[in-house]
Amino acid sequence: MQNGKIGVTTENIFPIIKKFLYSDHDIFLRELISNAVDATQKLKTLASIGEFKGELGDLTIMVKLDEKAKTLTISDHGIGMTAEEIDKYINQIAFSGAEEFLEKYKNQSIIGHFGLGFYSAFMVADKVEIITRSYQENSKTMEWSCDGSPEYTMQEAKKQRDRGTDIILHLSEDSLEFNDAARIREILKKHCSFLPVPIAFGKIKEWKDGKYVDTDKDDIINDVEPLWTKKPADITPEQYLEFYRKLYPMAEEPLFHIHLNIDYPFNLTGILYFPKIRNNFEIQKNKIQLYSNQVFVTDSVEGIVPEFLTLLHGVIDSPDIPLNVSRSYLQSDSNVKKISSYITRKVADRLNEIFKQERADYENKWDSLKIFIEYGIITDEKFAEKATDFVLLKNVDQKYFTLSEYATLVKEGQTDKNGNVIYLYATDKQAQYSFIAEAQERGYDVLEMDGQLDNHFISWFESKNQGTRFARVDADVIDKLIEKETKRKMALTTVQQDLLRPVFDAQLPKDDKMHFNVVFEPLDEKQQPVVITQNEFMRRMKDMAAMGGGGMPFYGQMPDSYSVVVNGNHPLVAEILDEVEKGYGADELKGINKKIDTATTDENNLNELLKDKKEEEIAQAEKDKRTELSKKLDELRKERTARLEELGRGNKLVGQLIDLALLAGGMLKGESLNKFIRRSVEMIEK
């Protein structure tokens, strides 16, 4: 029997292992099974080169839980260890101190370094035993035991076993969560589902006499030859789907898949799937599983693939990805960047291939692909360069176009007087129907841009295509969205517009969250009498602020600003003007207008006299006269405005036209909608 101390100079190695080396305690089982797999694989290698002449036999790794004894045992039939090897790999943790070790190996994998993978067992066990026998001839079964202190015992076992190793964990009181078969099965499924050596935990159960009972068949929890290890030519489409269902049992069927297989300048295999993404793409992340030689590492792969590719599902397996001590976090180095670039290129090439070969199917799936591709375009320049060949634009008639196809379609008809090509778009076909219909009557095409990332995509596109501008179809009247050389004459004079502005203002909604500005435009008399539009720039800024983007959150606090566009050439507007002028009283209106004109003239004349004087050179009498004229003019205008607003509030036609415009924009609701309906009925009855 051998007693001794594990080769460390500090006695706090186990607390440090427990606290720092592994981010999750359930990693211990992965490490111990990985060691068992390594031992098994090494034996198979030795057999293949003739150094092991014996029978390999059943190489299944057995995991056994004794809930009564609170022990967990991992048994393999691999190469085993001699007493000298136990001393070398278990006892001699060759470093001068724990802290120095952590510093030395913080940027590289410790798997295989001095048995640290084995020592993860002390995270959950207050005593660990090893019973092992080497594959070498005439070897003896050895027993090793340690209670978590630097002291250990090692001796020849009284009872000999066959080749291989048993690791027996006596679970500590604070780790009894692992003294549960369901918990162990969960960990095995998570970390060991695709290891290359069979792993058995318990027996397969069958339904008998009204309950599940164990059979005599071992329950193998892993697939030793997962799909990504096979050649794509040997895999059927149905097998790809079956594998996806195995990975994501509750998910909808994917759109496409990509099989990765490269051995130079690095090793990487895997299968990536394009999932159906609905509304919130954030919940789709962390669905790619990263493996190293079929050992699960993590599903947080931001360091190994570009941000936009984290929306994909599937698996990546590479022994060349550098890992830290816990195998849980990726390190940034040139190899990782190469892998990332390769995956990006493969994804882009695959999408381009599908688009060219199966365009109809690609278009059918575009609504699900769109958010993924737009995300890639706005976050990854290299992907954006390739994606211009297969990104699509869809119009409100459900027709699809590549960027170049659409540019050709609208260039002639939708180029404004300044030479800019205007891409009209709608975000809600139903709410913006009247605007869409008017644009289409002019022969214009309207895109449907109702996705989460469309605002960002539009900004990206405009930055790359000078002379092309997107405009939402309700951002202004159509004649202003795509301005042409010819202009219509306005039927209303400036004075008449000033008269009508308070009339329309009087019946606009009063809401701190909305601001309305009445403007007059010389539209076709057949166009709507009143239209409510929202400025493109301000709306975009508010939309981006609402998504937490744009870098200008103050836009989110600003009220929504709308233009109430009154068609100065519409007969109904002329009718309203006539009613206002009559309602005010011709003589009364002329009288106050004359007073305003006189006061304005007097103010202008005085300002002309004073324009060359500095403020200190102006006499007090002149200052008083200026103040008096300004006050008088202000009072006269307020008097006229008050009277016009009074007339506006009593004008049912004005209210009806404004409500119709609000209704067309989806802004007429609640009590206002009810009043509109009642008024409409009254006007019909008359």
Automatic annotation (TrEMBL):
Domain Histidine kinase/HSP90-like ATPase intervals: 23-175
Alphabetized Pfam families for the sequence: HATPase_c_3, HSP90
PROSITE patterns reported in the protein's UniProt record: HSP90 (PS00298)
Coiled coil: 596-646
Origin superkingdom: Bacteria
Molecular function terms, GO-annotated: ATP binding; ATP hydrolysis activity; ATP-dependent protein folding chaperone; unfolded protein binding
Swiss-Prot/TrEMBL keywords: ATP-binding, Chaperone, Coiled coil, Cytoplasm, Nucleotide-binding, Stress response
InterPro entries documented for this protein: HATPase_C_sf (IPR036890), HATPase_dom (IPR003594), Heat_shock_protein_90_CS (IPR019805), Hsp90_fam (IPR001404), Hsp90_N (IPR020575), Ribosomal_Su5_D2-typ_SF (IPR020568)
Binding residues annotated for ATP, in chain numbering: 31, 35, 76, 81, 96-97, 165, 327
Family note: Belongs to the heat shock protein 90 family.
Protein name per UniProt: Chaperone protein HtpG
Annotated source species: Alistipes indistinctus YIT 12060
